[in-house]
Amino acid sequence: MGKAWMKSWPERIPQNLAYPEVSLPEILRSVAKKHPNSTALIFQEKIITYQEFDDLCDRFALSLMRLGMRKSDRLALFMPNIPQFPICYFGAMRAGATVVPVSPLYRERELQFQLKDSGAKTIVALDTLHSYLASIRQKTDVKNVIVTNLLDCVKTNGEVKPAQLPNTLPLGDLLKSRRGMPSKVAFSVQRNPALLQYTGGTTGVPKAAVLTHYNLVVNAIQFGSWLPSLQDGREVVLAALPLFHIFGMTTALNMPILKAESIVLLPKFEALQALKTIQRHHVTFFPGVPAMYIALINHPQTSEFNLRALRLCISGGSSLPVEVMRRFEALTKAKLVEGYGLTEASPVTHCNPASGPEGVRPGSIGLPLPDTDAKIVDIENGEKEMPVNEAGELIVRGPQVMACYWNKPDETNYALRHGWLYTGDIAKMDEEGYFYIVDRKKDMINVSGFKVWPREVEEVLYEHPAVKEAAVVGTADPRRGETVKAHIVLKDNLEVTEEQIIQFCKSKMATFKVPTKVEFAKELPKTPVGKVLRRALRN
């Protein structure tokens, strides 16, 4: 098929880029030298400049070296979006460590698995999460537990002293006791892991994608180049996506730091708090997931806030319903474009053009980023390239693709074949080279031999004026094998019946795609990043 997307390539964006052989902490050091007094991090009332940020990373790196941390030792981060996350993230890498982000929503069993599987020897945890470590510490390789609290990085009157937890090292004390520049740790940015990023991957088995410094730096540069309207050193980024997730890490941390932007940290996304933050700090760039944009659209106070500073929003993590995109843009006047990625690719591989005459294709994930190749292959064997507009498995390759899965050679060989990463997503490409995600391979519904893709049905459901959120799954049916079931959250103070939803769908799609069952709920189960858990709905 060739690279059909070249005919749609944005004029302002180069097709090939240069990538320096440097680590992420070296990127930060360079930015701090050029913009020492520019704001790097904003959290509540606290403002941290790039010079201060870089110095705190040095102090943490020195502390780790004094604790005996060696190159490629794993360090886990167990906290939400607070300044300590980026400080420990870059500081650990500066000491040569490999970072293992852990969701702060995890409990003992999940935490123990990730610590044991990664072999992490040190963990930095928020004090409110420390109790989960107590019962599992002896079952892992963890030797050092560093505990932090909000007082470590937020201005106080000095009257409040955080409680000392047993058998732990206070992060605040470590940062105060070390000053200076740590000696540089020699390692290969192309080979040494910077990150063990856990994911269900293409088969659903929990495993860590091994991402090198080169992978992460490359993807930050690729993504930044795709957004030429963002001006270096002049944007304010809302970091509402969790930084422990690769999507938030690249789009709301690594890329903004590369471009010397100011990052406003939100520990947890709540629509009202997000609206207040966008208005107060004049946020200009907001990467998010569809659930966030849906929440902002439907919040009763949204119209009361001045959101005019907001210019550009990127949606990823799951499919963006076209109706959500249109309503959000009409409400805010900001540009909202859909992109695509996966943990194994650091994560961004595709995005709609965010500026220029090429325009956005609603429902599309856009074009491959610079130096990224993609094609659609047959679902059965993954070898035959599919014709234009025919669905198959999306495979990608590029310098942002992971090295391997951590200690999982069979899983690696399944995902990485002949130089290509097999995504497990079903997609198609149109004549202009725009890609469209149809759905996950495992989410396809087989109705009497006919393929039904949940996203197509969900797009119709979102057109109904009473529907706030919708998710579609297959459910067993003795006559047809499977049938379509819709799970729906209604907008406040609106009512609709199951039969009305079914009749609405019948007017817009083939009968075999129409839900035969509709279940109404107050909310849909989601991952920490806001992706709907279809597995939980099926169960």
Strand order of the largest sheet: 4-3-5-6-7
Compute the average pLDDT. Answer: 92
Uncertain residue segments: 155-160
Strand content: 25-35%
* Chain oligomer state: single chain
Secondary-structure-based class equals alpha/beta
Give the biggest sheet. Answer: 5 strands, parallel
Radius of gyration: 23 Å
Distance N to C terminus:
40 Å
Shape: globular
Number of helical runs? 15
Strand runs, count? 27
- What percent of residues adopt helix (DSSP H or I)? 25-40%
Topology, pairings included?
Blueprint: H1 24-34, E1 39-43, E2 46-49, H2 50-66, E3 74-78, H3 84-94, E4 98-102, H4 108-118, E5 122-126, H5 131-134, E6 144-148, E7 169-170, H6 171-177, E8 193-199, E9 207-212, H7 213-225, E10 236-239, H8 246-258, E11 262-265, H9 271-281, E12 285-288, H10 290-298, E13 312-315, H11 322-332, E14 335-341, E15 348-351, E16 367-368, E17 373-377, E18 392-397, E19 404-405, H12 409-415, E20 416-417, E21 420-429, E22 435-440, E23 445-447, E24 450-452, H13 454-463, E25 467-477, E26 481-490, H14 498-506, E27 517-520, H15 534-538
Parallel strand pairs: 1-11, 3-4, 3-5, 5-6, 6-7, 10-11, 12-13, 13-14, 26-27
Antiparallel strand pairs: 1-2, 8-9, 9-19, 14-15, 15-16, 17-18, 18-21, 20-21, 21-22, 23-24, 25-26
